[in-house]
Amino acid sequence: MSKPLSDLEGPVRALFTDLDGTMVTNARFSGPAQGALDSLFTANLPVVLVTGRPAGWGHALASLFPFAAVITENGGVSFVPEERGLRKVLALPARELAEWRTIMLDAAADISEQFSGARLSVDSAYREFDLAIDWNEDARLSPGVADRIVELLLERGLAASRSSVHVNYGPPGVDKWVVCERILEECFADLSAPYDDVVYVGDSLNDAPVFGALSKSVGVANVRDRWDELPHKPGYITHSREGDGFCELVDRLLLLCQNSC
Asked: Would the pTM count as exceeding 0.85?
């Protein structure tokens, strides 16, 4: 049973956060959410962005904000700030991706033929590891159709999951938690498994692997929209939805940080 956010206790040493439907409200990054993020940076609480959005977006976000790392394409491509700039990390060797890309493009063509209105997302042009079928951003497909698309992709041996806007799919064996764990091992040497001092916040099915891995996992309130579909539930839930829920969590984290000082 998930608990209210008010039950979340410290210590908290880092925050890993989803983007769409979590920090972003109605496809917009609001002023309050921006202010909440700035408050975390000011408090020197490391923040790692974890999103299904493309590597092109991730490079820009990692350049514009002082994130400890940015994980994109559901783990496929990560960016880690270093003294000489951003270091890009692919979840698989580049030579393996060409073969998978052919399989993924063939799958996209078949899905477009089978489902009216299904098409690659606009941001697929900026992807290096996975691709995305738009079901709820520019397209308007039902969740049931999106789930059927996921099933077809899984049948082809691909990894696939539904976010709040896309069906993301790519080479198997990679998800948000697989790469979050790698980033924790590489960039947070002072933390150790089971990472009870790390908080993760998200809202959708592609966040489920991290919900299941971390004890301090948080769902913003709109996670209830897909509650019965989640194989792993978050440990805590905010009262508010989307960006307002993110702000609610940040307020709680800042209070916990103050109390631990």
From this structure: yes
Q: What whole-number distance in Å separates Cα of residue 71 and Cα of residue 88?
A: 10
> Tokens representing 257?
């940080």
How far is the C-alpha of 105 from the C-alpha of 72, rounded, in Å?
19
Outline where 115-222 has alpha helix (H). 143-155, 176-187, 208-213
pLDDT tens-place string over residues 46-78: 999 999 999 999 999 999 999 999 999 999 999
The number of residues making up the chain comes to: 261
Domains, the chain, with CATH or none: 3-91+174-260 (3.40.50.1000), 94-170 (3.90.1070.10)
pLDDT in the model for residue 260: 67
Q: What are phi and psi of 54, to 5 degrees?
A: -75, 165
Distance from C-alpha of 66 to C-alpha of 46, rounded to nearest angstrom: 9
Q: Which residues pair with 17 in a beta bridge?
A: 49, 201
3-class SS at 183? Answer: helix
| Residue 11 DSSP class | -
Are the beta carbons of 228 and 206 closer than 8 angstroms?
no
Q: How many angstroms separate the CA atoms of 90 and 223, rounded? A: 29
* CA-based radius of gyration for the chain: 18
Q: Which residues of the chain have pLDDT under 50?
A: none
For tokens 């923040």, name the residue. Answer: 47
Report pLDDT for 119: 96
